[in-house]
Amino acid sequence: MAGLNPEILKWARETAGLGLDAAARKIALGPARGLTGADRLAEFEAGDEVPSPTLLKRMAQQYHRPLLTFYMAEVPARVNVGQDFRTLPDRSDPSNALLETLLRDVKARQALVREALEDDDDVTPVQLVGAEVSTRNAGRLSDALIDAIGFDREAYRARSSAEEAFSYLRALVEARGVFVLLAGDCGHWSTAIDVSVFRGFAIADALAPFVVVNDQDAKSAWSFTLLHELAHLLLGESGVSGGPPQGAVEQLCNDTAAATLISISEIRDLPLEGGVADLRHINALADRAKVSRAMIAYQLYRAGRITLVVWEGLRDAFQAEWLAKKDRDKERNRTTDGGPSWYIVRRHRLGAALLAVARQGMADGSLTPTRAAKMLGVNPMNVYPLLAETRRVAA
């Protein structure tokens, strides 16, 4: 146990959003020697007592930190991926600790990709990053976005599902040098990060720009999030997005994504009955446009066609329906066999662009299996079969 840093124990608990009492309950630290569990935990954090290896493992699990974190010499610097564009009511929520873990992981992987690209004599900066740094009009920013990636709305809508449409959009974006990842947890379903905490984030690096879409969200919302984050890249701004788009930049990126997917006339001409949108028409337009129903309802509100109260009611109703469906699907999957392999799912989450860099690095010897594993966020033993797998998950 030599080298354990008590200061890190306290930092890990606090960044997990836990007080002493709550943490003691989560790590199953009971009373002893006349002290409460919280008092005992305070002793560990003060360096007066040393936790057992078993207790340390429970801390690592509940604080969502690797076990080796507790042996670091000093508290790690807060990860920085740019601005926090979120408008959240409670930044101390434990899910924010998970988000910071995810941000740190993706940032480290992005740095490895950048390093690999820097060794390529033919690499050039991604032109769309920062190309519209002074633009503050959603229509103009949407036009620039469409031109930058060659987006065709009709081709997008011709896909058979919202997930297929996302794959079409993702391929266009990755072809322009942007890495698009689907990530909404820290490697296990138990660490899933709710969309109320974040929907996406962008790293506006000139050589290796990254966009991460929270795949805990409905698939019908993925394309909107990708376009929103792509707008951030065009503005040259890294950051995390989520919550109501109250800030000027967030609203601009929201409006840009909406203008790319939906025409003003479609929102203007959608039938209303007594100031309330007919759900049949919302459903039909959402299905046709391959977007979420909540996005359609929000655009109706933005256009002044429905009130804030009506919009919030529709949003909450759609969210409740989606959560109920998600629970039903989860229950059904528990009782059915089969499904895509781990490698197919993993490839889908990583994206073709990131896999291509790892595959090239392994082929020319510039990447060891260990570094490739870090880049891909997998165990080294999984690298070869992951990169050898040629099939992609149907999207």
Report on the architecture of this protein:
There is one protein chain. With 395 residues, the chain is mostly helical. Helix content is 53%, strand content 5%. It contains 18 helices and 7 strands. Strands 1-5-3-4-2 form a 5-stranded mixed sheet. A two-stranded antiparallel ribbon has the order 6-7. A hairpin with a 6-residue loop joins strand 3 (200-203) and strand 4. Helix 2 crosses helix 3, helix 5 (94-118) packs across helix 17 and helix 13 runs antiparallel to helix 14. The longest helix is centred in the last third of the chain and has 27 residues, at 308-334. The termini are far apart. The model is unreliable at 88-92 and 391-395 (pLDDT under 50).
Write the layout of secondary structure elements.
Blueprint: H1 6-15, H2 20-26, H3 37-46, H4 53-63, E1 83-84, H5 94-118, H6 138-149, H7 153-157, H8 162-175, E2 179-182, E3 200-203, E4 210-213, H9 222-234, E5 239-241, H10 248-261, H11 264-268, E6 272-273, E7 276-277, H12 279-289, H13 293-302, H14 308-334, H15 342-350, H16 352-364, H17 369-376, H18 383-388
